[in-house]
Structures are given as structure tokens and as C-alpha cells.
Amino acid sequence: MKILNPYSQAVTQDDSQPAAKAMLHAIGLTPEQLNQPFVGIASTGYEGNPCNMHLNDLAKHIKQAVSQYPLNGLIFNTIGISDGISMGTSGMHYSLPSRDLIADSMETVVAGMHYDAVVTVVGCDKNMPGAMMAMLRLNRPAVLVYGGTIASGCHAGKKLDVVSAFEAWGAKVAGQMDEKNYHQVIQKACPGAGACGGMYTANTMAAAIEAMGMSLPYSSSNPAVSNSKAGECLQVADAINGLIHKNLKPRDIVTKESMLNAFKLVTVLGGSTNAVLHFLAIADAAGIDLSLEDLQEVSDTTPFLADLKPSGQYLMEDLHRIGGVPAVLSYMLDLGWLDGSCMTVTGHSMSENLAKVKPLDADQDVVLPYHKPIKATGHIQILKGNLASAGAVAKITGKEGEFFHGPARVFNSEKEVNEGIALNQVKAGDVVVIRYVGPKGGPGMPEMLKPTAAIIGAGLGDSVALITDGRFSGGTHGFVVGHVTPEAQVGGEIALVEDGDLITIDAKQNQITLHVDSTKLAQRRTNWQAPPLKTQRGTLGKYARTVSSASTGCLTDLPSEADSVVEFSAAKPAPLALNVNPDEGAENHSRQGAPS
After folding, report:
1. How many Å apart are CA 66 and CA 246, to the nearest integer?
2. Is 589 helix (H, G, I), strand (E, B) or coil?
3. Checking phi first, is residue 420 left (phi over 0); if not, alpha (psi -120 to 50) or beta?
4. Is the dihedral of CA 326, 328, 331, 337 positive or negative?
5. pTM check: above 0.70
6. What whole-number distance in Å separates Cα of residue 30 and Cα of residue 262?
7. Which residue, of 29, 42, 422, 536, is most buried by count of CB atoms within 10 Å of its CB?
8. Residues 302 and 211: beta-carbon distance below 8 Å
């Protein structure tokens, strides 16, 4: 007889665990129900963020549906950080670390409470990869449910989303928008529940996870406030019941082939550069050997087709209107771009799931035909060179060009660069360098949406490049290069750049070059000293001490001997600081060379 409750039976069937059974009776379970599988329903719902404000309600719908089967659905919650709300503030330092906290907390509850399966209900950027990491570590039957995208706002006949608000600030600073219209954009940009509407990180990762097979078809493109999202909650119960009976687990579904399928979809849709970090972390949790070179190979051979924000005009709701992610996957499968044999949480292969999907209409212009691409190769490019010996990630859609050469304008914090933009210190032709904002140096590798949106809003999007050892939001567009590794905090070459140094970014040759001779760089390194970590205690201090580099996915659970080895040892590090606010002290960094 097949055992359907291999984990929960440790506390429900063992006669020596009377206290466990007594406590389960206390929550309302009958003796008969103790024989049934336990399904943890992990919600990242909380009231403070539109991406997550409705997720607890979805979790209740899922629990109700699961309970129609001989299954015990039990809801628990974990944390979330709103990237949109924390962007440009000290709160953004907590965003990427929250991914690992989400993974750790989901793993802890499911394993600690002996649940036989898990459904994760997620909405904001770090929720999806965090949930995936947990599900793959646990490797028990699992389904991910995406909360869905937000509806668009509208002002003066123009569709709005959250990035519109950031860009409106840049336009106001540049004198191109008055105060009244600025506040109108803010009030109308986000009309209700759901994740940010463009092909930003949340929608990117939701679409990718559907392509990996870990969510139901249409989950990533069903809008948050829709009958289709409510109906999906009912279908989840059937899916998790089937997975339990088939003993089909996440590592049976997430393979290297399914991950490459997913990254091809990310490329076609013009998804966020954050996908690189999260794919590396998901692959590590699954025990899959996935490298930056694998992702670059996908980008070399897959065109960018979708006219979606941030670089295009359409939103996820428009993709839903033309058939959603399944219609795009079906198109890609017909072209031979995908491995259709990959298994999914439906219990069927991708090819089987897509067999009855209606094809993309010929007259729609959200996803262009493969022979008329926005860009013939992928927008995500892995660059290397003397500024990024371990790699950097560029987002080059082709609209901003593929080559940039100019003088460096160096800032040692996001606060500095935001002030510099407001004071018109950034000029056309500059290569803006933002450093000491990497995984360790940030800490937490904060996203740079505020400065990039301000640059766009100020009308400099076509004439300024930006490089950083931090990250970019999925809402970023323009000529940008992030994830520069080794980061400045550990002595990467980006720490040695000075104002006026010439930098070349060549996205055709995938090179990023600092035009300073090796002798001069060696002299600068002699004079360089690692700044103190901005915080030593608490969750950020722990993160800064344990996090690996961006080129490995910013992992925090590597074996101790592999933990974040400093790539350069020529300079002696300064003592650790006890400053708990990552923004404090940033203004004390000098404009050139090392922070003072």
C-alpha cells in the first residue's frame, strides 16, 4: 500500500507521541484526519504591500479546496519586503536577504512540523525564488501559486504602473513635470492588489517558474483581481492531491532542461536581470550545475520578442489578454526552442499541457514574431573584463545601443548618486559608477531603480550608462550593468575607479573595460583599504558575513569553507563597524579611491 503521509506519520501514527496527537486534536483534527496527509499552505501575505495584501485570502481559498480531499490543509505565514516601498531607502538593504529568510522559514515550518506537502502562495519579488529554494530543499510534493499582477493605473490617457511614479520624480526634478501632475501620477499608479505590472522581477520570476513546471498553467499571467485567479485556487487542490499520490516532487520537475526552458522564456519576454541571481540560487537548491555561461548561451541563441515594460509599452495584463504565458510557451515550443518533455505539477509534460492552448493571434503586437524581433539575441548579457573578472550582468534591449564609452562619474553609495542627479552632477556621456552596494558592501545588494528612473526622467536615459556592484530593479531600463563581481567591498577593480577614468561597455563582445594601465591600478590597490562593514549585528550583519558573491547567486547556506572568500587579499581590511543603519556613514565616503 502506497504511503501518502510519509512525514506526518512520525507525529500522528507513533504511539509514543501522545502529546503531538493531543495538540493536533486541539486544532480541530479528528482521529480520522490524523491518518490523512498534511499540506502546509505557506502564505507571504501581509497588509503593507499591494503585491501581498490579498495572499492570505487566496491561502484560505486554497485551504478550503484542499479540505475537500482527504488532506489536512494548514496555513502558516512568513515575511515579505516590498521592493517598491523600500526602494531608495535603507529598507532596500533587507530585500535580497529576505529571499533567504523566506526560504529558511518555509523549510523550517514544513520540516519541523512534518508536513507531507506544501503549497506556497507568493506575490512580491523575493517571494518566488525564496519559495522555490525552500520547496527544492524539502523535495516534497509542492505547488507554487502566484498572487497575480496588478491592474494598470491611468492618468491623462496614459497607462501607469509603479515605475511611472519613480520616473515622474525624475521628470519633476528635471523641470519637465509640474507638482499637480506629479501627485496625480502617484495617486493613480497602483489601483489595488497585485504585483507590479510590467515584466519586472515579480512577473519575470512567476513566468519563469510556470515555465519550470512548478506552477499551474496561466498562474503567472492570471491577474490578481480576477475570476481566473480565484478558479486557480480550486485547481491547486487537485494538483497537490495528484502530486502526493504520484509522489512527484520538485526535483523531479525542476531539472537543468526545465531551467533552460524558463530562462529562454525570460529572454523572450525581456525579463529582469534579477533572474540571473535567482536562477543560480534555485539551481543550487536543486543540486543542478547551472552557470553564468549556460545563461549566456541561452541569451546568444534566443531573441527578445515582447514589447513589455520597462523598455516596452505593454503590461502583464496585456499579455494575459492575448493568451498569457501558455500562449508564449506554445509559440516557443512550435519553434523548437523548448524541451516539451519536461514534467510539470499537473502530472503532465509541458507539451501535454500546451497541446490545446490557443496560439498567439497574428494581429497582436505584444509579442512580436521571431523573424521581427526587438533584438535578435537576448537582452541579458554576461560581461567580463578587468572591471568584472568574475562577471557582470547587463540589460541591453538594443534600444539604448550595444556600445558605450565615456568617463567615470563615481559615487560610493546610492544616497550619493541620488543627490548627484538632483544637483545635475551627472552629465550626458558619463558612465555612472555606484559601488560599495554589493551583497557584502550594501549590505544586501540593494536595487538601483531610484537613480535609473531619475536618469530616465531627467532625459538622460539615452546618453548615460550606469554600472554597479549592486542590483537593478526589474523596472530598470537604459544602458545599465549590475552585479559587478568581485564587488568593491572585497577589493574588486570597481573599488579602484576614479572620476574621469575611461570605461568601455561592449555588449557585442561582452566586455567591460577600465582604461587604466596595470601599473597605475597596482598603485591604487596599494593605497586602497577595505571599508568597515556597514553593520555587524542583526540580520544584515549575519548576511554580510555569510553571503557569497553575485556570480554564485548570493547564497547564504554554503559550507563554511566556501563562505564568501575575499577575492583580493593585498589590502588589509579595516575593523568592523557597529553601525546598524546601512545609510549612515555613506556620505563620509570620499568621491575618489577608497571610502575614508
Report:
1. 17
2. coil
3. alpha
4. negative
5. yes
6. 42
7. 42
8. no
